[in-house]
Amino acid sequence: VPLSWLVGVWEGTGVVEYPVDPDGEPRKYDFGQRVSFSHD
């Protein structure tokens, strides 16, 4: 089974940054995500 290594819960954090307007400071947000893979 080529994708069996994905089974389980995966989670992590990161930072997204994007410009609001051309001359302004970019906005930064911390975020977290969690993904669960299972099979029958």
UniProtKB/TrEMBL annotation:
<dbReference type="InterPro" id="IPR014878">
    <property type="entry name" value="THAP4-like_heme-bd"/>
</dbReference>
<feature type="domain" description="THAP4-like heme-binding">
    <location>
        <begin position="2"/>
        <end position="40"/>
    </location>
</feature>
<dbReference type="InterPro" id="IPR012674">
    <property type="entry name" value="Calycin"/>
</dbReference>
<protein>
    <recommendedName>
        <fullName>THAP4-like heme-binding domain-containing protein</fullName>
    </recommendedName>
</protein>
<dbReference type="Pfam" id="PF08768">
    <property type="entry name" value="THAP4_heme-bd"/>
</dbReference>
